[in-house]
Amino acid sequence: MKKARVLLKPSFLRRATSIFSSLSQTRALSNLMETNNPSSRYCYDPVLRWDPQVEDYFNKAYGPHHFSRISKSLTRPSSYSCIRVNTVKTTSGAVIEKLTKILNESEDSLKLVQSNGSSSISKCQIPGLEYVVFVHGSGPHRIEYGPEKPPKEVLVSRKCAEAVLRGAQVYVPGVLACTAHVEKGDDVAVCVAMEQPGDEGEWSVNMTRGTTLQGLPSGKHHNFVIVDPFYCERSGLYIGMGTTMLSRAGMFRVPNGVAVDLSNRVFRLPSFHNVLEGEIFLQNLPSIVAAHALDPQKGERILDMCAAPGGKTTAIAILMNDEGEIVAADRSHNKVLDVQKLSAEMGLSCITTCKLDALKSVLLPNALGDSTTLVNGDNIGSVTSHSELSSNEDMTSGKSEAKKSSEENASIEQANGGDNVSQADVRKNKRRLKNGRGRTQSQGGRAGKSQGFPPNSFDRVLLDAPCSALGLRPRLFAGLETVISLRNHGRYQRKMLDQAVQLVRVGGILVYSTCTINPSENEAVVRYALDKYKFLSLAPQNPRIGGPGLVGRCEFPDGYVEEWLKPGEDEMVQKFDPSSELDTIGFFIAKFNVGPKD
Predict the structure, then answer these.
(1) CB under 8 Å, gap of 24 or more: what pairs does 526-530 form?
(2) Which of 172, 239, 245, 350 is 20–30 Å from 52 (CA)?
(3) Which residues carry out catalysis (predicted)?
(4) What whole-number distance in Å separates Cα of residue 373 and Cα of residue 398?
């Protein structure tokens, strides 16, 4: 039986095209009408957009319903702020008393009594974490944005919005656009500008700073036109009402300052900016648990491989009662200075800092004679990298000065047009010599450089690895990560783990942690470590308040197979789920015992 051939006449095709065009316009108009509904438009109901392959990967790992809950939780902040008290200086009771007074006196203070009758400031009840204080917030709240007419609007960047959801104000650098004729003292609705996908797969806001928001669409049904091209994109992304502290012109003229005093927020959490500095540190609960998992003891030598900004470093120092030595390393000069500053604020003297790439943490055998400069507080001491602080400071300082002098001479030679030097490099070096040291060299501190450390140099090592940070919240955007990039994060962390394993002495402890929900950076890295280093074994953690890890494996369409944990191993790690009752960030902790390496 022959197949029938259907020939479509041009007139029919024209009519079909017209019908489909009308349907598209009707559908767009329907979406617009839904957007115009104040209850659905002026609210906070973001949807986290993932790369389709990444979403499929996470669905396989967690299950579709569970991952949907995780994804929604990531768009919202935790319902409380977690504060670690510096017990070297004060007590949790004294901090609670001071915070209660501060919140009572603040104009936009939280209610100090929750709906269930309990105080909004409380001491953590988890054994061993009594020095941690919780300040409970509230939300999400339904906000009236003006029933009679649409409010004036201020559009902020995504990163600004994420900070605002955690309790910050709207500062000038975060403002991207606003309605015309906004004056100082106006009531405005604050909304978020989200990245949108482009034709070639790139993501961008598609807006220049200073854009005027028209506020309303217009046009006839048969000739659908939107005056404000960003009108629909803002639907469901309103984070509060506030009062402008500057006019529209002022917001885009001055470099800093508060642009909007946000008095009515979707989520109400206190800001602890410049509050009780040195006495408290705002830190996520799983990060504090990671320091406890390391179980540092007085007098030990401990390495924090990726220490900045210093939260876990100082937490470890407090657990040691500031007795022992903690080497806090980071590859960024400015971040090392941040660790130094925080250590000084908290009055901790056992922390030594150095600039060091975690991928080069192990000192090569032919470099054992080289010197390593470590910085401890305001005192700079130079030491050989295979010993503790010694008395050869003058000799090492002399080497450092000689090296510095040779570098300067090399720069001058380049600036004068040495061999194999481009004219661009010549101009760059001339500007550098003329203008003096750059920003990273002129912040009033010094970050000592390190060539690394010999194997078996430390009793305990914490590797809080740089990661995709897909567990941090609130998070409003996740579109940049791909399956390949998630795998690459894991490969990078394996290389750092290879370094960490060599630095822990036999009988010591290694703790690996991340702030991501990505199994490639969590369970897969643990599997790699246990398979490659037979002398490593998972150790119990205390306190254990997180959930189990993932068991099994994942097969990808391209044939790549990712191995996770085996039964029994899942109960030895801690995995913090953003959608769980603990209401924390997404986080992962694995603790290893280091056995005989032979």
Answers:
(1) 526/565, 526/569, 526/573, 526/590, 527/563, 527/564, 527/565, 528/494, 528/497, 529/494, 529/497, 529/501, 529/590, 529/592, 530/569
(2) 239
(3) 515 (nucleophile)
(4) 12
Closest CA to 469 of 458, 483, 481, 460: 481
Residues involved in catalysis:
515
**Residue numbers belonging to the annotated binding site for S-adenosyl-L-methionine:** 306-312, 330, 357, 464
Q: Is the preceding peptide bond at 309 cis, omega within 30 degrees of 0? A: yes
485: exposed, middle or buried (Cβ count in 10 Å: 0-12, 13-18, 19+): middle
Least confident of 25-34, 46-55, 482-491: 25-34
Whether 418 has a pLDDT exceeding 90, the answer reads no
Q: What is the mean pLDDT of residues 26-40?
A: 51
- The dihedrals phi and psi of 96, each to the nearest 5 degrees, come to -60, -40
Look at residue 133 and give its three-state secondary structure: strand
Q: Are 251 and 216 in contact (CB under 8 A)?
A: no
More confident residue, 146 or 165: 165
Tell me how far apart the alpha carbons of residues 364 and 286 are, in angstroms, rounded to a whole number: 34
pLDDT, tens only, 477-530: 999 999 999 999 999 999 999 999 999 999 999 999 999 999 999 999 999 999
What gap in Å lies between CA 76 and CA 372, rounded to an integer?
44
Contacts of 17 (CB under 8 A, 6+ apart): none
300 closest CA partner among 281, 322, 333: 322
The answer on pLDDT for 305 being more than 60 is: yes
Task: Write down how long the chain is.
Answer: 598
Report residue 541 as tokens: 């953690």
205-210: long-range pairs with CB below 8 Å, 24+: 205/157, 205/176, 207/155, 207/176, 207/177, 209/175, 209/176, 209/177, 209/252, 210/177, 210/252
Binding residue ranges: 306-312, 330, 357, 464
